[in-house]
From TrEMBL:
Keywords: Isomerase. It holds the Pfam family AP_endonuc_2. Residues 25-275 form the Xylose isomerase-like TIM barrel domain. InterPro entries: IolE/XylAMocC-like, Xyl_isomerase-like_sf, Xyl_isomerase-like_TIM-brl. It comes from Spirosoma pollinicola. This is Xylose isomerase. Coiled coil: none annotated. One of its GO terms (molecular function) is isomerase activity. It comes from the Bacteria.
């Protein structure tokens, strides 16, 4: 059965000791691991946090984004080189934390648009960058799991079909894919078809309600989701990604303007919901 994690972005995008009591409570609730945002803090901060998680018996995964100055699809070779260096630095931080997966829209710059549909050269550039950092991730024993985002946050990969094509172009065993229920709710016709499409390269799943609140409270087709994941024998992480305004700078950067649910309601009831659904569709 898939391990279950919780993304601490519900409290903060900044790595600090303030996250320690939060992770301790998540462990008490019953989580197998936590997911954190990889920013530009010193590697030592991630190493210290990873040590704390190890003491608790919690595993870890990470999420990251790239900006316009590190855009893998840029026409500029210099910018693409900066993308490689930036993602490598994220891998260094994740390795220091002993994380197993880095997910997120690392295939192209977040909320950066060309005002045209994705071009063949952009997929080519992205695949070249991802292959290069895949080699670096391999020595760190980390899986990179690029994420398809909705049309308001990204234009290169909105669907599982687009993401599968990119992963196949990348052609690296350490570069796989993520499925996020929130984004799929906007971009996919049917969840079962989308999950089966990405199944050959699926390495990470974000459990996220349509409003980014508590899983199970909204209208995501959860039965379709868990049933199909069971059918494809998915055993990777199922990590809750939900957002609040606890970290104002981060919330503003992703257009989160209101509270959806209290983070501890999300954590406690979200885990109960996932366990119930996993049991419903267990072999």
């Amino acid at each position: 059965m898939s391990p279950v994690g919780f993304n601490v972005l519900a409290w903060s995008a900044v790595m600090s000791e303030k996250l320690n009591p939060i992770t301790e409570r998540l462990k008490t609730i019953g989580y197998d691991g936590v997911e954190c945002f990889i920013g530009d803090q010193p590697v030592a901060a991630y190493q210290k946090f990873g040590g704390h998680l190890a003491q608790l018996g919690l595993k870890s995964t990470c999420v990251m984004v790239v900006g316009p100055d590190q855009n893998p699809v840029s026409e500029s070779a210099k910018v693409r080189e900066q993308a490689v260096d930036f993602i490598k630095s994220a891998i260094d931080r994740a390795q220091a934390m002993n994380a197993s997966v880095i997910c997120g829209p690392m295939h192209s710059a977040f909320a950066t648009f060309s005002r045209r549909e994705p071009q063949p050269d952009e997929y080519k550039h992205s695949a070249e960058v991802l292959h290069a950092v895949g080699e670096y991730a391999k020595q760190a024993n980390i899986i990179l799991a690029p994420e398809a985002l909705n049309r308001f946050e990204c234009y290169l990969c909105n669907t599982m079909s687009q993401l599968l094509d990119l992963i196949r172009r990348t052609d690296h065993s350490n570069v796989r894919a993520m499925f996020d229920t929130h984004h799929a709710n906007m971009e996919e016709k049917r969840f079962p078809d989308a999950i089966r499409t990405i199944a050959p390269v699926l390495a990470h799943v974000h459990i996220s309600e349509n409003d980014r609140g508590t899983p199970g409270d909204g209208h995501i087709p959860w039965d379709d989701t868990f049933k199909t994941l069971a059918e494809i024998n998915y055993t990777g992480w199922m990590t809750i990604e939900a957002f609040t305004r606890n970290d104002i700078d981060f919330a503003n950067s992703i257009n989160v303007w209101r509270e959806y649910n209290d983070p501890w309601d999300i954590a406690e009831n979200g885990l109960k919901f996932i366990k119930k659904m996993q049991a419903r569709y267990a072999g």
